[in-house]
Structure formats: C-alpha cells, structure tokens
Write a structure and sequence with these properties.
This protein is an alpha/beta fold. About 45% of the residues lie in helices and about 15% in strands. The protein is built from 16 helices and 12 strands. A 7-stranded parallel sheet has the order 1-2-6-7-8-9-10. A 3-stranded antiparallel sheet has the order 3-4-5. A two-stranded antiparallel ribbon has the order 11-12. It is globular and about 60 Å long. The two termini are about 25 Å apart. The C terminus is likely disordered.
Length: about 350
C-alpha cells in the first residue's frame, strides 16, 4: 500500500496511482486528526473524496505517530494525551476516540489504537505496552461493533517487540476477539532484518490463515520476501515515495541513485524494459538534470517509477506463490538486487 499520510500520496494524482498499479492506499489518523480534523474530512466527503480514490483505503490509528512525533506524551490505561507537533495544542486519544475518528474519515479498514514501545525498550516496558494494546483492542472492538461494522473492517495489532512469548500472548488475545484482520506492529524500528525474520517465523501458526495479515511499515524488497514466506499478506511503507523524492529509484537490479554523476550522460531509462510512464518518456540523464536543477517534476517522475516497481514486484510474488516456486525466484531476485542493496548505507545517505 502506498502511503498517503495527509490524504495524498505525495506528488502523484489518483490517476497516476492507478496507472502505476496501486490497488489500496493508506492514510494516517494522527495527521488528519490534527489537520484538517475528522469533521472537516467528513464534510469534504471522507478520505476517499479527498484523495479522489475509489479503491480501498486503510487508516492507521495514529498510535505510532503519537509516540514518535508528539510532544510531552503521557499515557495510562485510559488514553494517551499529547501536545500537537503542529501548534502544541493538547489532544487526547483513547481507543474509542480512535475508532470514532476513523469512522469520520470513512476508510475501508481501520486499525486499533496501540502502544508501540521503542525499539530498544526494556522487556518490562514492552510487556506493559503489549498488554495495554491488547486491552485497547478489546475496547476498539466494542466501539466498532456499536457502529456500522459492515462498512469498515477493524484490524488488531500484535505487539511484543522481539520477545517470542510476548508476541504469542498478544496474538492469542487478539485471535480471541475474532477481528476481520490482524497486523504485526512494532517491527522495522531498528531491530535489523535477521531479528525481524525471527519474530515473524511463528506468525503463520499464531494468526488465522483465512484472514488478512498485515506487516506495518515494512517495504524493503528483502523484508517483503521474508515476510511473505512467513505468511504475511499486506504491507505499507514510505520507501517508494520518500526515496523517489530523494532521487533514489528501485529496480530489479537494485537501487539507482540518480544524483550520482555517472548518470549525467545516460540516454537509457532508469530501468530498461520497465513500462512505467517515467521509463517510457525520460532518460536517467534527464532525471538527474531535473533533480540537480531542483525541478519539482523530478520527484514525481521517480515516485511514479517506484510505485510501478513495487506493484510489479508484489504481482511477481503472487505469481510465484501460485506457481509454487517462490523460494527459488526469491533467491534470484535477491541476488540481482544485492549489488546496490548490500552496501550497508542508509537508503537516503548522501541524498
């Protein structure tokens, strides 16, 4: 799912999203709560109308943003209270309020309010956050069932950090709630690829196979492949759009950093053989020029390519699952992408 935090996927239109192959997008409750506000979103026709998007939309509950962006955050079992990062105004977000806001936004999938402990938090802090999130899932379910449950689906969020027993406890409690779908939260927060893979190994036995399983905030190709192998169905990440805005393109041969001088004379597209609008009309050399000249078209063009790449990538994964050869094809893909992804650099280092 491309990320449309403030009811827009940055730099691209809904038509461009569809052409790139996007099938579902994400918007964020925290940001829309603070600006323009859920009632304004409702008055504007809901998040679908604001985004001019007639496909499904998932809204995050805002829990992660509260703990990562908000100022002076205070939490207890009842709610989380914080100061807006925009103007410092006080805000209270409870499980019931999170459901109410997402009902006003009009998304197709809403997420429970959860507490995401920091990546390096002590076990006791992680356990407290997990059990609070589990209790909040029950309260979200009660609030959701009091509304029109046929129109919006509620997903619960597994927490527990890197601790297998806490993850198992969280999953068992969520499954008892019999929700339409389940998410895995609290990963991709600095724990590393191998640790993430270890956390995901039991997922297929912990969460129902007949319901969607969503890994939140993960978008690296190798992470997606490992998670799919573990039984995950859905993903969201800012990588296609954020990296696109910073002159970095994803390809089947690895990443292309368009600010590098090597691309100055290139008349080839970012990725030969790619059928996206950008690769059909613009050379890598032209795109580098547009970035160096600070032309606003450049981020849009590379974002279009990146969205198209991830749509093709996930489509190829679905085809490989259907044909039964995902393990071998995954090895081939990772080997092809390794030269540009194995340098250990931050995705945006030097951009």
């Amino acid at each position: 799912m491309p990320v449309g935090t403030a009811a827009t996927v940055k730099g691209v239109t809904a038509e461009q999203l569809r052409a790139a192959g996007a099938r579902m997008v994400l918007a964020n409750t925290y940001h829309l709560l603070l600006r323009p506000g859920p009632e304004t979103v409702r008055e504007l026709g809901g998040v679908h109308a604001m985004m001019a998007w007639d496909g499904p939309i998932l809204t995050d509950s805002g829990g992660y943003q509260v703990f990562s962006l908000a100022h002076r955050c205070r939490i207890d079992d009842q709610a989380v209270r914080f100061a807006s990062h925009i103007d410092g105004s006080p805000v209270e977000l409870s499980p019931e309020r999170a459901v109410e806001i997402q009902q006003a936004l009009g998304s197709d999938v809403m997420m429970q309010l959860d507490e995401c402990a920091p990546g390096k938090a002590e076990r006791d802090q992680v356990a407290t956050a997990m059990r609070r999130s589990l209790a909040w899932a029950g309260r979200c379910r009660t609030a959701w069932q009091a509304g029109d449950t046929q129109r919006q689906a509620l997903f619960g969020i597994q927490q527990g950090g890197v601790h297998a027993d806490l993850r198992a406890e969280s999953a068992a409690g969520l499954v008892e709630l019999d929700l339409p779908g389940y998410a895995v939260g609290g990963l991709s927060v600095g724990e590393g690829h191998d640790v993430m893979v270890g956390v995901l190994e039991p997922i297929d036995s912990q969460l129902p196979r007949a319901k969607p399983r969503y890994l939140m905030g993960v978008g690296e190709p190798r992470d997606i492949l490992a998670a799919v192998a573990a039984g995950i169905d859905m993903f969201d990440c800012v990588l296609p759009t954020r990296n696109g805005r910073n002159a970095q393109a994803f390809t089947w041969g690895g990443r292309v950093r368009l600010r590098n001088a090597r691309w100055t004379p290139s008349r080839e597209p970012i990725e030969p053989g790619c059928s996206c609008y950008t690769c059909r009309h613009y050379s890598a050399g032209t795109l580098r020029h547009l970035f160096m000249a600070d032309e606003m078209l450049a981020p849009t063009l590379v974002t279009i390519h990146n969205l198209h790449f991830f749509a093709r990538f996930t489509a190829a994964i679905r085809e490989a699952i259907a044909s039964g050869d995902l393990p071998s094809r995954s090895r081939q893909w990772l080997a092809a992408m390794a030269p540009a992804d194995a340098d250990g650099q931050d995705p945006l280092e030097g951009e």
